Amino acid sequence: MQRLLVTGGAGFIGSNFVHYVLSHTDHHVTVLDKLTYAGNLESLKGLPGQRFRFIKGDIADAPLVDELVSSADAVVHYAAESHNDNSLHNPRPFLDTNIIGTYTLIEAARKHGTRFHHISTDEVYGDLELDDPVRFTEQTPYNPSSPYSSTKAGSDLLVRAWVRSFGLQATISNCSNNYGPYQHVEKFIPRQITNVIDGVRPKLYGKGENVRDWIHADDHSSAVLTILEKGRIGETYLIGADGEKDNKSVVELILKAMGQPADAYDHVVDRPGHDLRYAIDSTKLRKELGWQPQYQDFEAGLEATAQWYRDNEAWWRPQKAETEAKYKEQGQ
């Protein structure tokens, strides 16, 4: 699989994957990205031109998708509308991209017999109780709770149906929350980091007891590449790095990493339907395919991420004012 088509490759985890592939393999990568607000060409600067090209376009554009898929050995599908708050205020783009866009891609992959890997989220499983020791596995029933997670669940099911009905050569991965470089400042960790840089106290939903299972974007990238190379067709693999932390602890670690008092944050009203806890059991991926995460010290990874945002203000500064204006409109 020397020629990869990566959708959403100018977004956060997509761009990290592109950097990872080009630095760890000899593959050629074509990125297809619509460059909505979450896509940023600056995230793809410095890549080797002889093995990388960028195409601006929509994954729901069937003729364009057909042309690109026809010349690819594999498609890695990251493109998605992915922000829960945005999906609560305007669900329609999530249907257009996550459902119709995925349908367009898998139809092209089916037509050309192209290997397809679909990137999904642990949010399709709903949430777990805070005091429940259980983690999500590949057998956990779907129970999405937002327009975002429901459209991702729908796209997963489309891929599974195309595998069974049409022989699509596909795998699926559901991952826990990513952190690291190139993440839009609307997201939890970079929003808090950039607020501290700007002298603004971080904001925490509710009591901050909600738990997320964090994984560094490089570990996600290495897992996806492993699945693409070794995964069994038709299988789903959960990607996680045993990084469970409640939101209050994450904010306090960010403040610590940035030399601020651990209690220098404010509580805001919790968002509607806020999932309590996510937790991934990645046993299948580790045992069957031999994958292991490299970033197992979350605090160290968080410190490195905070430093990246300090060092790359030119990358995130253009997003910041508009993002905070939207949050202000929403009372957050």
TrEMBL record:
CDD domains xrefs: dTDP_GD_SDR_e
GO biological process: nucleotide-sugar metabolic process
Keywords assigned: Lyase, NAD
UniProt cofactor(s): NAD(+)
EC number: 4.2.1.46
A GO molecular-function descriptor: dTDP-glucose 4,6-dehydratase activity
Chemical reaction(s) catalysed: dTDP-alpha-D-glucose = dTDP-4-dehydro-6-deoxy-alpha-D-glucose + H2O
Boundaries of every NAD(P)-binding domain copy: 5-302
Superkingdom of origin organism: Bacteria
SUPFAM superfamilies: NAD(P)-binding Rossmann-fold domains
Signal sequence coordinates: none
EC class (word): lyase
Family from the record: Belongs to the NAD(P)-dependent epimerase/dehydratase family. dTDP-glucose dehydratase subfamily.
Name of the protein in question: dTDP-glucose 4,6-dehydratase
Organism ancestry: Bacteria, Bacillati, Actinomycetota, Actinomycetes, Micrococcales
